[in-house]
User: Which sequence fits this backbone?
């Protein structure tokens, strides 16, 4: 035998290391999981706030559709105009501070609605809120008023937290 073969005989088999487990993870994977968890939490919180924020508006628009359906069925301007005014007041109380809204009525109420709207004309169209509940039934067509109220509600963005 030659010396090279003796040396080869003395070599032992390669010992493989034990199989690597899944834990602990490498720092990069831990960071990635942390970022993903943070994004998930932020997304859930943001989604929850978005759903809560739109709840008042969705409910108001649902009630408005019910009032409109009732108006077209009965054509009662007195009760419909009073109901629309009440709905607007409830929505305004949800979106603006109570001290700013609760005491408003008459022309001051219409001015408030005009100032808080974007390109809606409450000072002329909104006169029905002042006079329609006291006029004989069928004296006014409330269709423009329904459109005005729907537009004002749709423009609301964030409810007041106070």
Assistant:
């Amino acid at each position: 035998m030659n010396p090279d073969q003796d040396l080869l005989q003395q070599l032992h088999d390669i010992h493989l290391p034990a199989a690597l487990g899944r834990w602990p993870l490498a720092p990069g994977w831990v960071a990635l999981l942390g970022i993903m968890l943070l994004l998930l939490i932020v997304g859930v919180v943001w989604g929850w706030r978005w759903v809560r924020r739109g709840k008042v508006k969705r409910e108001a628009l649902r009630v408005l559709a019910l009032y409109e359906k009732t108006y077209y069925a009965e054509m009662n301007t007195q009760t419909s105009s009073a109901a629309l005014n009440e709905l607007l007041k409830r929505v305004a109380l949800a979106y603006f501070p109570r001290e700013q809204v609760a005491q408003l009525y008459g022309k001051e109420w219409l001015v408030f609605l005009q100032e808080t709207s974007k390109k809606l004309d409450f000072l002329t169209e909104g006169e029905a809120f002042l006079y329609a509940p006291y006029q004989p039934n069928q004296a006014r067509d409330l269709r423009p008023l329904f459109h005005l109220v729907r537009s004002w509600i749709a423009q609301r963005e964030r409810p007041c937290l106070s």
Q: What stands out?
A: The longest helix spans residues 27-74. The mean pLDDT is 86.
